[in-house]
Specification:
The complex is a heterodimer. Chain A is an alpha+beta fold. Chain A is 39% helix and 18% strand. A 4-stranded antiparallel beta sheet of chain A has the order 1-5-4-3. Chain A has a 4-stranded antiparallel beta sheet with strand order 2-13-14-15. In chain A, strands 8-9-10 form a 3-stranded antiparallel beta sheet. The longest helix of chain A has 29 residues, at 240-268. The mean pLDDT of chain A is 95. Classes of the chains: A alpha+beta, B alpha/beta. At the A-B interface, helix 4, helix 7 and helix 8 of A face helix 1, strand 6, helix 5 and helix 6 of B.
Chain lengths: 511, 260
């Protein structure tokens, strides 16, 4: 069959679709739809299981992004029995989604080249375990076989879960020959605290707080995606002012994190001026978010129906003043880096990630743009105010640490300009409306371009309008494997630098 | 090189004078210690307790707000028909006893953290090395602990430092609800710190499980695994709240200077 023979439901970002409009395909056709879509430059935003109406079966859903056509599509199938043929060998982009389905629903994707748990937890379906582990037995994290390179002089380096810095836990296993890394395998799951499971039956009073703490550094991004999903389910229309304020907060989050990352990258190669200035300026930007809502991470700002806090003219003016000062400071601090040859020598050609690998693995965000892919939800799947005001997509072509740093710097400048314009664009107007109740038997998808890349939230509601499934894909879920790939052939001593150039989330992955 | 020096001039000296002077002003929307006007509560009203996402507010038998569970989210403030709950801008929240975080009506001051005993202060007062363990945290508490290391706050000037190994540490600073998957690692890290040692729990998750309280995947906070000497509430706590707690613990805060 060809792509044209499939008719998945067309869906737009931050919109909903009645579940009966999501076409059902037999499993082989469902998989062919994904494989052919990906071959035609579509991306897998989410692929997940959910309870089926049929006993002893699991429904699978896929959300594909057609970036060139600025829309999404959705399709579903049903898996009966205990296994299904893995699609990963022909479509690597689904490798982690299949592992997740195996872990959550006890279904074995047969032929998966590296079928290990994702978060080291028991199956959601009692008595159904993809690894036939006895029920009730503890599942120690990161315990199991690791990919090994054989050879007399090969040695293995194990790092984590507790790391040297103030960093989240994860386990890294390097296969080295001398200093050279031949393979890196990353085992996560230490931060797993049951976010998706707890969202079932919602929305309730805790739901927004789960969204705000999926990844604390992306509180705005995830809370925004959550709000967009709830609003799409309820058919809520927000004011232009609310959408503008949301985007201002999202861009502040991007600026703060990017500045922090540039400082940390400078610190990782021992260039202390930029490191210490950026550390402070990042704090200044977090304080701007606190000016909006009292909290440096934006907690309490995003609420279904708009934003909880409005902005008066004086607050607009104060924010504008602080933005201008921070922009001057950060320009001075960051330009020092590009002028310093010894720093550039450490950034250039370190940890390269080729564009075709990015495409195959489904890498998103600044990491993809640094490898030359023009991939940005704000542009490709516009939502909210980004439908009317475009932020240029910043790309670089070398895919190395320098590219990932430079793309961040370009994005910082674009976001500054965007906020400065927005602050003068939509005065007054209500900033919050009553969101209404989620519709029953409906699917809604929201993609938000967080500072790390695509944040994807998908909700399916039951006949009562409650969450029958809530799927979250943090950009880190796509990108961790990109970091592992970028380390191949690199010196192990460059790992911290490469790692920081991706700066991925453990808790966002582990949920 | 000349560019580096010029940048240094331009960026100026930015370390705050606190604690030798009052701290930077908190933003007007900052949500610090709440104040409960219990006398305003109508008979039988449960609006605040029903709105609270983490069960921090109880009414049986009397109104109480557990700041260890509180996310400082203002849901209670919004729900209260009498405006009996308001968030003040008081950032000082760190305590030594978990019970001291249970706020009663009209309580305008917490029993803030007392300094360590003389012997411990002699050991740690001018040099406290901490190992940070993130045990299921969302990375917000971790981020604002990290901020204390930046030039504005300069934690190093108090002799407080985050170190790379528990063997080099005098204690642990724990964030997160302690997931099942981090329980063993946390325990092992604690055991690796030579005695005498102190434990500081930072954030609603580490104090009570936070939004993840009672999930099968978590332990409801650090105290379920290790003994805790200092509790710093918040979601996440402001860096000033954390620093205030650390300085109180070490007996290095002179409130005649910080209160302006």
């Amino acid at each position: 069959m060809t792509v044209s023979s499939f008719h998945p439901a067309i869906l737009y970002n931050a919109r909903s679709l009645s579940l009966d409009k999501v076409p059902w395909y037999p499993l082989d056709q469902f998989q062919a739809l994904i494989a052919q879509g990906v071959a035609h430059d579509q991306r897998v935003c989410a692929c997940f299981g959910t309870a089926s109406e049929e006993p002893d079966a699991v429904d699978l859903y896929v959300i594909l992004a057609h970036d060139s056509e600025n829309h999404l599509s959705a399709a579903r199938t049903t898996v009966r029995g205990k296994q299904f043929p893995s699609l990963t060998p022909s479509c690597p982009q689904v490798h982690l989604f299949e592992r997740e389905i195996a872990e959550q629903f006890g279904l074995t994707p047969e032929g998966h080249p590296w079928l290990k748990p994702v978060r080291y937890r028991s199956s959601w379906r009692r008595g159904q375990d993809a690894w036939n582990r006895p029920e009730g037995q503890p599942i120690p994290p990161a315990v199991g076989d690791f990919y090994r390179v054989e050879g007399k002089d090969i040695h293995e380096v194990a790092v984590g879960p507790v790391h040297a810095g103030v960093i989240e836990p994860g386990h890294f296993r390097f296969q080295c020959h001398g200093e050279t890394v031949h393979h890196l395998e990353i085992a996560l799951g230490y931060q797993h605290r049951g976010v998706e499971e707890a969202l079932l039956g919602g929305p309730d009073k805790r739901s927004i707080h789960f969204a705000e703490t999926v990844a604390g550094d992306t509180s705005i991004g995830h809370a925004m995606a959550y709000c967009l999903v709830v609003e799409a389910l309820a058919g809520c229309r927000k004011s232009a002012r609310a959408q503008s304020l949301r985007a201002i907060a999202l861009e502040l989050e991007r600026i703060a994190n990017h500045i922090g990352d540039l400082g940390a990258l400078a610190g990782d190669v021992g260039f202390l001026p930029t490191s210490s200035y950026c550390g402070r300026i990042r704090g200044d930007v977090l304080n701007m978010t606190a000016l909006l809502c009292g909290n440096r991470f934006g907690r309490g700002l995003m609420r279904p129906g708009g934003v909880y806090y409005g902005m008066e003219a004086e607050r607009d003016a104060e924010l504008l003043k602080r933005l201008k000062a921070a922009r001057l400071d950060v320009t001075n601090a960051v330009n020092l880096m590009w002028e310093t040859q010894s720093l550039m020598a450490r950034f250039e050609d370190t940890g390269p990630l080729p564009a075709d690998v990015c495409r195959d693995l489904g890498v998103v965000g600044p990491a993809a743009r640094a490898s030359g892919l023009s991939r940005d939800v704000r542009q490709d799947q516009p939502f909210g105010i980004y439908r009317f005001v475009q932020i240029p997509v910043c790309t670089w072509h070398t895919g190395d640490v320098f590219a990932r740093a430079y793309v961040r710097w370009e994005e910082i400048q674009q976001s500054f300009t965007f906020i400065e314009e927005q602050l003068q664009a939509f005065p007054g107007d209500a900033h919050r409306v009553e969101p209404g109740r989620p519709a029953p038997n409906t699917l809604a998808v929201a993609l938000v371009e967080g500072w790390r890349g695509e944040v994807c939230h998908v909700a399916l509601t039951d006949s009562q309008g409650r969450f029958a499934r809530y799927k979250i894909s943090d950009p880190s879920f796509h990108n961790w494997v990109g970091l592992a790939y970028a380390l191949r052939g690199q010196q192990i001593s460059d790992f911290p630098l490469c790692n920081k150039s991706f700066n991925l989330s453990y808790c966002g992955h582990d949920l | 090189m000349i560019q580096v020096l010029l940048a240094r001039l331009k960026q100026r000296h930015r370390t705050m004078k606190y604690p030798a002077a009052p701290p930077p002003e908190m933003p007007d929307r900052f949500r610090g210690r709440p104040l409960l006007a219990g006398s305003k509560c109508p008979e039988g009203c449960r609006a605040c307790a029903d709105a609270c996402p983490t069960g921090a507010i109880t009414l049986d038998p009397e109104l109480r707000l557990d700041l260890g569970k509180c996310l400082f989210c203002t849901e209670c403030e919004q729900a209260c028909p009498q405006n009996a709950i308001t968030c003040t801008r008081d950032y000082r929240l760190a305590v030594r006893k978990r019970q001291a975080l249970i706020l009663a009506p009209d309580q305008a001051e917490l029993e803030l953290a007392a300094a360590l005993d003389t012997k411990s202060r002699r050991l740690f007062g001018h040099s406290l090395k901490l190992r940070q363990v993130s045990a299921g945290g969302c990375n917000a508490c971790e981020a604002d602990v990290n901020v204390l290391g930046t030039v504005g706050w300069d934690l190093g000037r108090f002799g407080i430092q985050m170190v790379a190994s528990p063997r080099h540490a005098d204690g642990l600073l724990i964030t997160g609800p302690v997931t099942e998957n981090m329980k063993l690692a946390l325990r092992k890290t604690y055991d690796s710190v030579p005695a005498p040692k102190i434990v500081i729990a930072v954030g609603a998750c580490a104090l009570s499980g936070g939004p993840y309280r009672d999930h099968a995947e978590v332990q409801n906070g650090a105290e379920s695994v290790v003994p805790v000497d200092l509790f710093i509430p918040g979601c996440p706590p402001h860096p000033l709240t954390i620093l205030d707690g650390l300085l109180r613990l070490l007996g290095r805060l002179d409130e005649s200077k910080t209160r302006g």
